[in-house]
Amino acid sequence: MKAIMVMYDSLNRHLLEPYGCDWTKTPSFKRLARQAVTFDNCWAGSLPCMPARRELHTGRYNFLHRSWGPLEPFDDSMPELLRNAGVHTHLVSDHYHYWEDGGATYHQRYTTWDCVRGQEGDAWAPLVDFDGAPKDHLNVCGGSLDNWIGQDFANRLAMPTEEAQSQSLTFAKGLDFLQKNHDKDNWFLQLETFDPHEPFYSQDEYKDLFPDDYRGPLLDWPDYRPLNEQDSPELVRHVRHEYAALLAMCDKNLGRVLDAMDEYGLWEDTLLIVNTDHGFLLGEHGQWAKCHCPFYVEVAHTPLFVWDPRVGTAGTRTNRLVQTIDLAPTVLDYFGIEIPADMLGRPLTQTLADDTPVREYALFGYHSMPVGITDGRYTLLRDVKDFDEKTYEYTQMPTHMRAMFSVEEMRTATMAPGFSYTKGTPVMKIEARPNPRFLHTLKGSDMLFDLQNDPHQEHVLEDAEQSDRLLTAMTAAFEENDAPEEMYRRYGLKQYRKKAE
After folding, report:
1. d(Cα 16, Cα 247) in Å, to the nearest integer?
2. Which long-range contacts (CB under 8 A, 24 or more apart) does 168-176 make?
3. Hey, which bits of 32-180 come out as E strands?
4. What Rg, from alpha-carbon coordinates, does the chain have?
5. DSSP states of 444-482 as a string?
6. Collapsed DSSP state (helix, strand, coil) of residue 360
7. CA–CA distance, 166 with 179 (Å, rounded to integer)
8. Residue 65 to residue 76: CA distance in whole angstroms
9. Orientation of helix 166-181 relative to helix 233-264, angle to 10°
10. Nearest CA to 221 among 137, 162, 97?
11. SS3 of 243, please?
12. Could you give the CA distance from residue 222 to residue 459 in angstroms, rounded to a whole number?
């Protein structure tokens, strides 16, 4: 048995041709759709980057108990379970958050791993007296060139050609693994690139595919904020074109993987999953990026393609509701490995075979911030109802994205008895400190959308019956995931607990 996962970051479903986009250049994704099952109703769970990857390993939501962070000692890790069962697991990635404090336990779960440096503000190229960044560069907030952006331009100088870019090197290493191991058995390759995450750095051959009238400073790094009066239609169009250019490069490299599948006959015995963690807003709903705003479909509704050689279903689509948490059980099931009881995701094997449903609802959100739920048609975005209700980080690994928890944070720590999935071990309970920049995303109100009649979420629906049904389902999902008691109070769900039972 063999399996390949090709994973992107911030891959926009609505900008892929198989999902109806008519202006981007994604022929390899169209080719993939002809050779796999395309999922029309796949949703993120825990956002953003590392919370989604914890779900990818553990098959359960992250955001109800902690924010961005590493794998925990009690976590069931899909790659580690494969490794322990004799399957060689290999990670090759340029997703630099893996090598930071808040991600440092993920790559060690694989049998072997390889990293490629240089994406975004990765602390890679030396910055001593660096003065090589364009003086007129802007991110869309119009801010000055800070050290993080300066680090990115130092990195770019070290990769001036397409072949030298992090994404290209990552795919080259993944393809090298396939060339050396295609005729061997019992391996899992996770080939993961940070692209098309911002900044949208690509070469002119891709930019030339999307000409526009923008003549301002270099602009390929959207900020996390609402659009303002400086964001002209020409500017917005240009940023979308910069994303599309990088997406075209992603598509080209996907084609190289599909070529390898053809050359080595891997379609006969190799599971292929192509996925992402979340999407990205490029001016839709008057917003840039993610985190600070509601998780509209451009962020939470994600692309997914799966080829299972045991089933042999290709060129079809399914509208069954699935999530990131279903991918770990799917891979384990494929290799015939028992799925741990703490994994709440479901394997997609029967969905691929005969369209069997695996879930009625999908829950998604950021820790301590607004939460969403969908049944595939109706989507409810629920805001925080009690901002004074404290939330906590429940962890045995107190690290944030790029730093350990501060001494001040650790002074709030107490020991809690743990949860149903912590294998009988206690955890630290540390006061959470949500980023105020990202907290008030819905201004206290909820938003209900009917995706069947309003697929772009342009009209908030007033329907008390549907809202009540979805809130009851949300409460049941909290119960299934052993959510902390304060979460019910924070989101105003206590009244729905009896209904959920």
Report:
1. 9
2. 168/253, 169/94, 169/116, 170/92, 170/93, 170/94, 170/116, 171/253, 171/256, 171/257, 173/92, 173/114, 173/116, 174/6, 174/92, 174/257, 175/256, 175/257, 175/260
3. 37-39, 42-43, 88-93, 112-115
4. 22
5. T--EEEETTT-TT--S----HHHHHHHHHHHHHHHHHTT
6. coil
7. 20
8. 16
9. 10
10. 137
11. helix
12. 26
Task: Quote the tokens at residue 105.
Answer: 């336990």
E strands, 360-450, are: 362-365, 371-374, 378-382, 392-395, 414-416, 427-431, 447-450
80 — phi, psi (to 5°)?
Answer: -70, -40
Q: What is the pLDDT along the chain (501 residues), one digit of tens a residue?
A: 999 999 999 999 999 999 999 999 999 999 999 999 999 999 999 999 999 999 999 999 999 999 999 999 999 999 999 999 999 999 999 999 999 999 999 999 999 999 999 999 899 998 888 877 777 776 654 444 456 788 899 999 999 999 999 999 999 999 999 999 999 999 999 999 999 999 999 999 999 999 999 998 889 999 899 999 989 999 999 999 999 999 999 999 999 999 999 999 999 999 999 999 999 999 999 999 999 889 999 999 999 999 999 999 999 999 999 999 999 999 999 999 999 999 999 999 999 999 999 999 999 999 999 999 999 999 999 999 998 999 999 999 999 999 999 999 999 999 999 999 999 999 999 999 988 777 766 677 899 999 999 999 999 999 999 999 999 999 999 999 999 999 999 999 999 987 766
